Amino acid sequence: MGIGNFSFLLKKNKKPILLVLNFLVLAGCQHMRPQEEEGGAREGTKTEGPSGAVQPPRYEVPAPQPSVTEPPPTQTSPIPAIPKIGLILGPGGARAYGHIGALQNLVRLKVPVYATVGIEWGAPVAALLSSKGQVYDVEWQMFKLKDEELAKKSLIGSNNKGNDVTQLRDFFQSAFGHQRVEEFRHPFACPAYNIAKNQVYMMSRGQVEQLLPYCLPYPPLFKPYNRNVSAVRELKMAADYLRSQGANYIVLVNVLGKDGGKRALVKDTDSAEAVMWSEIGSYYAKPLPGVDAVIPVELDYPVTEFDKRREIMQKGAELSKKPIETWARKLGF
């Protein structure tokens, strides 16, 4: 009876019934299409690649992240409630004596330093600071390297580009004795680039007199030591090391200045060393990864002028005074 009634309705009302059936078919197609489209991107499905069947990796596409812009060199990042200062003393040959003047200003403002990294000639200065935490000791020890010793060792007024860093062993022993980095008051490291292995190492263990020769050499002052030179561009690695030691605010003292790439850092301006140092100066003048604040020290001395290191130290104190005061005020010191 039900079938008869349905046949009757179909004969009497063909158009409405057909419209209903068409609607149901279309709805089913709409429901199926997304499933077919999703099937092509399902995890575990294989697609054809240049070398045959390829198994797509199982992962979820992350949501787009906002782009992050590094702060300009003199801009400070958000300051932690309790700042633990990780200090990087950058490269500069004889200009590294300007670091001592900057450290004098930090002490005057009672800015505590939690850990240090020294790069190239910044390495012995940073090591001395971490050793005892006393700036006057840094100055005293660094000036044990006498003018006559420097002249004798071809660092002053010489075109000799084959100096061996081991000639400073007496200086290292006088300044540190047989002290090990692990015995320092504060954590310390210096980056060394191994030419043979194309690898950078953060030197943070062992006797200082044996460690520093790996971190300090760089043309034109010294030839590589056991095929190692200072890793002058490893700011990110230096900052990461300081944070691994508990520092939460990384500050670089840049004795190459904000426009270091524009100034003559080597007397022979057409030499390969002059080009190298110009590039280094330009690199340090840009936003630097991992660094929260930069204290520029606008010195005007070639990297080889060790005979003027007393003057360089005094200029470092003078030129860093205002930048350090401005920065320290923001940190609440």
Please describe what this structure looks like.
This protein is α/β, with parallel strands linked by helices and 333 residues long. The protein contains eleven helices and nine strands. The chain has helices at residues 2-12, 14-39, 97-108, 122-132, 135-142, 147-152, 169-176, 208-215, 235-244, 272-284, 309-331, and strands spanning 47-49, 52-54, 85-89, 115-118, 188-194, 199-203, 228-230, 249-254, 293-296. The strands form two sheets. Strands 3, 4, 5, 6, 7, 8 and 9 form a seven-stranded mixed beta sheet that branches. Strands 1-2 form a two-stranded antiparallel ribbon. Helix 4 (122-132) crosses helix 5 (135-142).
Share of β-strand residues? 5-15%
Helical proportion, percent range: 40-55%
Secondary structural class: alpha/beta
What is the residue-mean pLDDT, rounded to a whole number?
80
**Rg on CA atoms, Å:** 32 Å
Please mark out the parts with pLDDT under 50 across 5 or more consecutive residues, or reply none.
Answer: 1-73
**Alpha carbon gap, first and last residue:** 97 Å
